[in-house]
Structures are given as structure tokens and as C-alpha cells.
Amino acid sequence: MDIQFAQLIVNGIAVGSIIALAAVGLTLTYGILRLSNFAHGDFLTLGAYLTWLINSIGVNIWLSTILAAGGTVAVMLLSEKLLWSRMRSIRATSTTLIIISIGLALFLRNGIIFIWGGKNQNYDLPVTPALDIFGLKVPQNQLLVLGLAVLAILGLHYLLQNTKIGKAMRAVADDLDLARVSGINVDRVIFWTWLIAGTLTSLGGSMYGLITAVRPNMGWFLILPLFASVILGGIGNPYGAIAAAFIIGIVQEISTPWLGSQYKQGVALLIMILVLLIRPKGLFKGTI
Question: Membrane spanning segments where (predicted)?
Fold first, then answer.
């Protein structure tokens, strides 16, 4: 295999790991809350900025990542309290929810620029040499990103399949009204949905900051690959979203020698359209 091609695949796996983490949060909020949250990418950006802020005052990067996840979850829960719970109570249409989420995305992005400015930021980390693996130069940060993504995905699998709250979440995703009359505490499920979505999305932002710079529009540029992963993987299916995220991450990177990096978003959209023409419900079975 050509070394440059293999290098692009390695880069694609690292990007796919980040898309996978955030796409799981996005597909859970859609599957359980029926919310197409266009602010999701900006919550990823918020996680990266909170990590950078805490790290910049001398806190270890891993502790910064954990604390940033807590901060991101808190902001998500605040948006649930102020916006989404009220919209559900008046049974707002999906169009209304999309418009509100776009407004929230703009509010978050401009808030980040207002507080921290528009220039790129970098974590305070020692410079580490890239590892030479079979002739490939693999930055250590990319391996860390992949390792953390795998751990987070395994943790999510255990939670969904083997815990009481995981089973309740799957029941609510299948039929909210039936779950409510069956005695499932839907409010608790909603809390856990935001907790998991916020933690994974913030972790994705922190990891993205490790392999690129932290910048105000980083999440906005990921929103199309995120939605492409969710739709491609079957709406509401976290495992499908993970698989689709790796497909999109790898294909985006492989396309750069021919199309240039500026068309990566278009590649994600093209993959989504082609698959949906053949399989309208995505590659895997969704909850909708």
C-alpha cells in the first residue's frame, strides 16, 4: 500500500474517532428526545475551550478534559431547563426545534468569540515526537484519541446493554408514551441522555483540540459530518453512528489529494446522499 494513502487512512481513523464520540451524543438526543440539535457542534467547541481554559492555568490535560466535560454537561442541562423542556411541554414542531437549535448554536459560537476571542489556541503540552510504525509517522496524540474513543464507546455499550438506565433509555427511544405509562421515569432518562451526550461531545472537542488547534468554528465545521454519521448509521442508533463516523472520517481524508481539504464537508454530504439513495433508512436500523 502506498505510504501516503496509508497515512491518510490513519488520519481518517483519528478524525473518525472524534466524529464518532460527538455523533453518539447527537443520535441519542434525536433518538430519545426527537431533537435535531444543530448546536451540537458548538457544544463540542465549548468542551474544547473549557479544556484549554482549565489547562492554561496549569491543570493536567486529562483532569482538564474531565472538568470540561462537567462544564459542558452543565450548559446542556441549562439549555434543557430553559429551552427544550418548555418546547416539549407545548409540543413544539420539529421545525421550531431546529430553528431554536440554530439560534442556540449562534449564541454559543458568538459567546465563545466574545469571551476568548477569535484566534486559535493550543493546549499547554510538551512536544512529543511522532511514532514510526511500519514507515508511517503516527503522532502520539492520534493514538491517544483513538484509545480514548474506544474506551468511551465500550463504556457506552456497557451502560446501554447492562444497566437499568440503559434499558430505560432504549425503551424511551422505542416509544416514549409507552415507556411513560409503563412506569419508567422519563425525566431521569432525559437527564442521563444529556449527561452522556454532553460528556462524549465534550470529550470529542477535547480530543479534536489535541490533533488540531482550538478555534471558535471547529464544531461548526464538524456539524455536517456529524449529521451525515447519524443519518448514515440509522437515526437513533449509536452503534450505526460510530461505524458511519469512521467511514466518513476515512473517506474525507482519502479524498484530500484529489479534491483538496476545502471539500471535505462536501465529501461527507455526498456519501450521505449516495447511501440514502440506495438505503433510505441508512446503513443500519434506526429507532425511527
Answer: 12-33, 53-78, 90-116, 143-160, 189-211, 266-284
